[in-house]
Amino acid sequence: MAFLPFNIAKNKQLKVVIAGGGYAGLAALTNLLQFAPDTEITIIDPRPHHIKITHLHETFRYPLSDLLVPFETIEERYGCRHIQASLQIDPEALQSYQEKKQLVINDETVEFDYLIIAAGCESKTADSEKASNVLTLSDFMGASGADLLSARLNDHDLPAPSITVIGGGATGIQFLFEIRQYLLRVNRKVKLTLVHSGKHVLEQFPGGFGTYVESRMDDMDIDFYPNTYFCEQQADQVLLTDKETKTQRVLSSNLAILFLGKKQQNTFSANAFGQILVDQEPLHNIFIAGDCSQFQSLGSNTLTAQSAVRKGKLVARNILRHAGFPGLLEPYLHHELGYVVSLGAADAVGWLVAESNIITGIPALTIKELVEAQYDLLLAGIDTYVV
Ligand SMILES: Cc1cc2nc3c(=O)[nH]c(=O)nc-3n(C[C@H](O)[C@H](O)[C@H](O)COP(=O)(O)OP(=O)(O)OC[C@H]3O[C@@H](n4cnc5c(N)ncnc54)[C@H](O)[C@@H]3O)c2cc1C
Predict the structure, then answer these.
(1) N or C: which end of the chain has fewer CB within 10 A?
(2) Sorting pLDDT into bands at 50, 70 and 90, what band is 266?
(3) Are 328 and 43 in contact (CB under 8 A)?
(4) d(CA 269, CA 70)
(5) In Å, how far are 54, 125, 243, 382 from 34, measured between CA atoms?
(6) How far is the CA of 308 from the centre of ligand 1 (A)?
(7) 255 with 270: CB under 8 angstroms?
(8) C-beta of 352 in contact with ligand 1 (< 6 A)
(9) Domains of the chain
(10) How far apart are CA 2 and CA 109, in angstroms?
(11) Whole-number percent of the chain with pLDDT over 90
């Protein structure tokens, strides 16, 4: 299917706007330029840089700057343009973009032949997150984990402080193990607790993931409260509620770090080819990819970089097909070939090829590094993704 033709007229220089320069947006950018180098591309993104967010938990070991690719560099590398702004994305605005084939951003009118929405998916928030002793994923996008944690621990110059991590999904677990190992490296005695609303951690993955991770948490002296909701972080304690009995529980805690998962709002459905659906009808010149999209097809809609990249590549190819003759589009059929959750610098748990094929330790870490290296190559303009 990936080889369906793109017969684009030679004298036609397409104008494409990509709203969101994350994994899906940049995969679309590199694929458009691979097959149609003359395409005029504008990226709209409120950030000054692309963030290689799949490494974010590693900023307890490496500087955050290692994960940031300034859009200026992307402009130079690919001859595209970046507008630092946030595009309004709602059904009414999308209808208007489709009708006018233009949008207004920072008081400038930008015309396009095609628009790609690749704005990702925001994290869920909690009421108390603005407190100084609460951190969320967005804090880690502005400063490295090591700097954030050392500043908070120095604020509370206590002999034995305690940290509560909320959320036992993939992001929470990856941060939890990095935090434990960072505290060991800097020789800080801190009580570390994980609070999770489910019965086991990593419940969206095969059962072996949870069993392995919970036994490693035991080894690393991390307390675990399953079936428990976070209510509020106060000055030196955290309020929790038991999911079943609804009884309240209070734990000593000087800092809460929240990983509550993704908000489902601001996600849009797409047909099998990636054209966005508004009122169940496709907008023919507006495609969508990444965490903000739910494709109505047999392909995988998981909120992962792997799916985001595949959707981004697919919509790039489909835009070129739509612009040409005979205009036959390719459906989204990608299925994940594996997923690895890292557990610090020297351990990981994952599955490869089949969900029953669970791997741990260095082999799992090696696979994760290979996948990350493949994405780095894509950013450098070398597409090594076979499927
Ligand atoms: C710590 C961590 C580790 C992870 N590890 C893995 C992993 O190992 N493997 C894996 O497959 N996945 C992993 N993921 C998930 C993966 O990062 C996401 O699925 C992926 O980033 C989704 O790509 P995206 O392009 O849809 O969104 P993003 O990468 O989030 O990019 C969205 C972009 O859109 C921009 N934007 C937002 N709103 C607007 C707007 N209105 N207008 C214009 N631009 C906008 C944002 O600034 C951002 O640059 C991890 C996530 C985290 C947080």
Answers:
(1) C
(2) confident
(3) no
(4) 30
(5) 24, 38, 51, 9
(6) 8
(7) no
(8) no
(9) 15-122+263-335 (3.50.50.60), 127-258 (3.50.50.60), 337-387 (no CATH)
(10) 34
(11) 84
Q: For residue 23, how far is its CA from the centre of ligand 1 (angstroms)?
A: 6
pLDDT of 125 > 60? The answer is yes
With a 6 Å cutoff on the Cβ, whether 110 touches ligand 1 is no
pLDDT by residue (tens digit) across 190-243?
A: 999 999 999 999 999 998 999 999 999 999 999 999 999 999 999 999 999 999
Tens of pLDDT along 140-195? 999 999 999 999 888 767 778 999 999 999 999 999 999 999 999 999 999 999 99
* DSSP β-ladder status, 354-360 and 348-352: antiparallel
pTM of the predicted model, to two decimals?
A: 0.95
pLDDT band at 37 (very low <50, low <70, confident <90, very high): very high
> Ligand 1: which atom is nearest the Cα of residue 22?
31
Substitution candidate for ligand 1 out of 26, 45, 68 with most atoms within 8 A of CB: 45
**CB of 57 shorter than 6 A to ligand 1:** yes
Please say if the pLDDT value at position 262 is more than 90: no
- pLDDT at position 1 is 55
Residue 242 CA to ligand 1 centre (angstroms):
31
Q: What pLDDT score does 385 carry?
A: 83
Given a contact cutoff of 8 angstroms between Cβ atoms, the answer to whether 206 and 349 are in contact is no
pLDDT at 26 over 60: yes
